[in-house]
Write a structure and sequence with these properties.
Rossmann fold; alpha+beta; globular; 2 domains
């Protein structure tokens, strides 16, 4: 074939090899004007990144297997959690002051097994269907809880009635545009009261591969990463919602996991498949909480004294600073 001409099939040259298109170093996918083409090129770039990362991971694994015992220790990746700024209010389990506070705070009768939790779950005024279903499912998670749907009754009138009927805690689920978006947890009769922003609510029917309906057994409670004095108080509030003695025969566990000041709630059933393997099924519901304020005493929006209020402009100056 002449120089510069295309090879003729059958002359032994074969079809030309496809060339890999390389973008200039300064080129960005965001410069592509066409939206569909830009999205397609971005997905291709992400796929190529995953392939390269997987290939590098396999290469390092083979090198470690070849070295055997002489392989260097694995490097610990840097994350926001392990780069966390130290908080001076972090709780030391052996601190005598913390032990004294726990023995004299509002939750001491519960941890001393002098009181049995009795919870009232209510809603904002005239709730809609999704909030109603969420309250009903939450009542199946928390034992000895009762659901009341508000019809124009103020919280200041509900709290004295709860105290008179020996309720130990009050949970209020607020909603906006038919979606649950807030939770108020008030410990009775003397407080404290915590205000949370609620997000990512999933009902049981919206959870994939969910297990069967939960039973009436008292679940176990797991509290993760509540390390500061504030986090310690919030963790004790959650623990006081459940009876102190779980029924392990039910194999149900409620988890409050704090990560970067977001509290993730999950409800599972577990089963031991062998001595080393455990299977879990999520029962639902699930939701995420973000603490907005902690108030002394019971709910009082006008004259209440606040122990802690989340102020974004003052407190969220560093991504590595956490309060719980």
């Amino acid at each position: 074939a002449r120089e510069g001409s295309r090879p003729v099939p059958g002359d032994g040259a074969g079809p030309p090899a496809p060339e890999r298109v390389l973008f200039p170093p300064t080129f960005s996918v965001s410069e592509i004007k066409n939206k569909q083409r830009r999205h397609f090129m971005f997905l291709r770039w992400k796929q190529q990144q995953r392939k390269e990362k997987l290939a590098l991971k396999k290469k390092r694994k083979k090198e470690r297997e070849a070295l055997g015992d002489k392989a260097p220790p694995k490097a610990i990746p840097k994350t926001i959690e392990n780069q966390r700024v130290y908080d001076e209010t972090t709780v030391d389990p052996n601190d005598e002051e913390v032990a004294f506070d726990e023995a004299t705070d509002e939750f001491a009768p519960y941890f001393n097994r002098q009181t049995v939790p009795k919870i009232l779950i209510t809603t904002s005024d005239r709730p809609r269907g999704r909030t109603v279903r969420f309250c009903e499912q939450l009542a199946t998670v928390i034992p000895n809880s009762h659901v009341y749907y508000r019809r124009g009754l103020a919280l200041k009138r509900i709290i004295p009635q709860c105290i008179a009927r020996d309720f130990t805690d009050l949970i209020v689920i607020n909603e906006d545009r038919k979606i649950p978006n807030g939770l108020v947890l008030s410990h009775l009769p003397d407080g404290p009261t915590a205000h949370f922003r609620m997000s990512s609510v999933r009902l049981r029917k919206e959870i994939k591969r969910k297990g069967k309906e939960p039973t009436e057994h008292v679940p176990e409670v797991i509290l993760n990463n509540f390390t500061t004095r504030l986090g310690h108080s919030i963790g004790r509030m959650f623990a006081a919602l459940f009876p102190h003695d779980p029924q392990f025969i039910g194999r149900q566990v409620a988890t409050f996991h704090n990560q970067r000041d977001y509290i993730f709630f999950r409800f599972h059933r577990y089963i031991f498949k062998s001595e080393k393997k455990v299977g879990i099924q999520e029962l639902g519901p699930r939701f995420t909480l973000k603490l907005r304020s902690l108030q002394k005493g019971t709910f009082d929006s006008k004259f209440g004294e606040y122990e802690w209020i989340h102020k974004r402009r003052e407190m969220d100056t560093s991504r590595r600073k956490f309060h719980l």
